[in-house]
Amino acid sequence: MRYRLGLIVGFTVAFGGTLLSTISLSHAGDKIDTTSRTAVISGFKPEWTELRAALKNRKSRIVNGVEYVTGETEGQPVLLLLSGISMVNAAMTTQFAFDHFRVSRIIFSGVAGGLNPDLEIADVVVPEYWSEYLEAVFARNVGSDYSLPKFAKPAQTENFGMIFPQPVEIAQAPLDPEDRVWFPVDPKLMALVKTVSSRVQLNRCTTDRKCVDRQPRIIIGGNGVSGQAFVDNSVFRDYVYKAFHADAVDQESAAIAHVAYANKIPFVAVRSLSDLAGGEPGHSSFDDFKDLAAANSVLLVRALLKALP
């Protein structure tokens, strides 16, 4: 492969014979790989271990500390990457993938906290809209009320104490920035999820036989929200569900939806519930069921990949 000046490549051989490249880039336009691929992104390791293990013709490249893995799975050329937890990590690694690989669409596979009281651990949700719900003004206390600065946008949903949600600005020069609260997923990908969901049997138990009370379900449509906070608080959970009518909360999906929207790349996120964001009695179920939730997300993602045209 030919690279322009400014791209430095060092090769080593990883265990198992997988070729591992360590790459330094100084030009935004340098392409590491020119094959058109579906990017499958996960937030942390339990969410991508199975997907990575299933890859054929696997080739890993480490760029700026992030591993980007190309190969084929379910008959599709894919790019796998671990975004890292948080909105900033998700946005950064997604934009890098767009700049240096040929990404035709994005599928996020991961876990989330459940907000909707009708949903339970290990259910899989595929929201139609995502919001950066912690984009907000922390308002000034004025007596028993709050005062917003003049630049603040009119409230589009109720506040949580001093926290007043705000739309996020989307640059669209030479036009004025666009104010946006909700980012839609790609309708074609959403339709394909609906088609394949009936073929997917989700897992009810972990490998060490920790089981949820009922057979997990796939919920398609509705809203999801993302922000920098891991939510494990029942009062705030109830607020977010009421204010945003959201089924799930995580720390990455809306950031990736934002970057995909700006780059006009199709996007969908598949999230399985590892916990109830503070709605469980006693303690968070995250540590007990994160692996089960991650596996259930992967089941639907692989079915979706197999059905792609």
Automatic annotation (TrEMBL):
Alphabetized InterPro entries for the sequence: Nucleoside_phosphorylase_d, Nucleoside_phosphorylase_sf
Signal peptide: none
GO molecular function: catalytic activity
Gene Ontology biological process: nucleoside metabolic process
Domain Nucleoside phosphorylase: 38-306
PANTHER family: PHOSPHORYLASE SUPERFAMILY PROTEIN, PURINE NUCLEOSIDE PHOSPHORYLASE
Stated name of the protein: Methylthioadenosine nucleosidase /adenosylhomocysteine nucleosidase
Organism annotation: Bradyrhizobium erythrophlei
